[in-house]
Amino acid sequence: MKTKKIAVYPGSFDPITNGHLDIIVRGLRMFDELIVLVAYNPNKSSLFSVEERMDLIRLVTQDLDGRLRVDCSSGLLVDYAKSQGANVILRGLRAVSDFEYEFQMALINRRLNRDVETVFLMTGYQWFYTSSNLIKEAAGLGGSVKGLVPDVVLERLEEKFRTR
User: Fold this and answer.
1) Alpha-carbon distances, residue 94 vs 8, 31, 84, 104, 109 (angstroms)
2) What pLDDT, in 10s, does the model give residues 52-62?
3) Does residue 17 fall inside a structural domain?
């Protein structure tokens, strides 16, 4: 019997970007099930609440196949993966500068649980410089981020910054 390949794609997703969606779509081609995990730190401030981020992810992925799940966690990633029967952590890489941090995280996760592997995917070239932080900064200063995030996310960003 074939073992189901379940991957966890963790991130803050504050907000989800088209670069994140690129990784999600490609991850679904590689794995039987993909869990998009909103990892949060209660000590960090975010633009969107955990619930808002999860809702946005569900909205922008609703047309994708049913093998996608959205969840949240504030604990150790490898513990979460194990609790879900996942054997892979999926991470997206943009620039070389991402690699050092991601490599360190992969090594500590491997030390914590040898049964969970980390798989890196390079983002599509059109999303190379797209990050949630840059998007929030540009949108917060009145810049257009159209085309870098799904339309519903663009609307929610505009609402957030209008009310601030």
Assistant:
1) 18, 21, 27, 16, 20
2) 999 999 999 99
3) yes
Judge whether 111 lies within some domain.
Answer: yes
What pTM does this model have? Answer: 0.94
Catalytic residues: 20, 44, 94, 132
Nearest to 16 by CA among 5, 25, 7: 25
| Domain CATH number, residue 79 | 3.40.50.620
Cα distance between the two ends of the chain: 54
Average pLDDT for 33-42: 92
Cα 62 to Cα 164: distance, rounded to the nearest angstrom: 29
